[in-house]
Amino acid sequence: MFKEPGRPKSFNPKGEEAILQQLLALAPRQIEATGEGPLLLRLRGLELRLHCPGETGVERALQALNCLRGELPLLVTRQCYTRSNYPGEPLASKIYHLVVIGDLEQAESLMESAGAVTGIIHAKLEKCPSKPAACQDIVGERLELARRAGLPHSLETPVVIPDWCSRPGIGHGDLHLYQFIASSDRLEITDFSGEPDTRTHTPQCYDIATVARSLDYIASIIELTTGERCNCTRDLFRAFLEGYMDVRDPPPAECLEACCIARAYYEYYYEKTRSTGLEWIPERALKRVSTSSCVWGTG
Questions:
Q1: Which residue among 29, 40, 49, 131 is buried most deeply as judged by most CB within 10 Å?
Q2: CA-based angle 92:97:109, to the nearest 5?
Q3: pTM (global) more than 0.70
């Protein structure tokens, strides 16, 4: 049930007051604001979460929300996001578990559903008046971030993208498999504010590349923890594309590969600057490019 709009007693961090006012303008009678933690915008089947958002992330998220709001009812709330108080499980965790136990049929079914949900969201976001940056600019921005984090020159890959690769419609911007929350009867997509430390709207092709790269992360972690090579990422990605193609045409292969390289650059920057110790995953992916192997999966 939606509650009548109420205003929380305090806002933290600075800037949430202005954000809430923008949201109230979008849906003045469908707002709930309670609890502690990051600002959370929930739509039926979708979710937008702003973790200590900067101005760029807020702008991107609000534009996506404004485009989607005519289709779905809206709830806005402030609450902590932890696995213990939020129903559902990140799709990345479910896929990891299913692959480890050998239930590839269920894993592929979930990936196909994720593809269909992504296609539906992309179709709606195509109405957004904002335009995505060109694929070439996306690659350039993320390569510069990776260089600042110390990317070896040997891992830089020349990318040439035909002009016809451009398509209308902004994307989610950071659509890894932890952004999908799977419950018993639905998938939700979270956090439309884009990648931290980036400035531009990404094309929808970048979302598909990000899902592909997320599968490579899962495969790499399985290999690290079990000592066994994961050879199913191509099949899982194919299932995602099949679900997507039930709703939308697939992106051009040239654009998808360029976006996978761009995402790997961003991953390197993110892992290095956050000191996660996982920069070896995008490093390995970029090395595969130099041997004419697929950048988005290991098997």
A1: 40
A2: 70
A3: yes
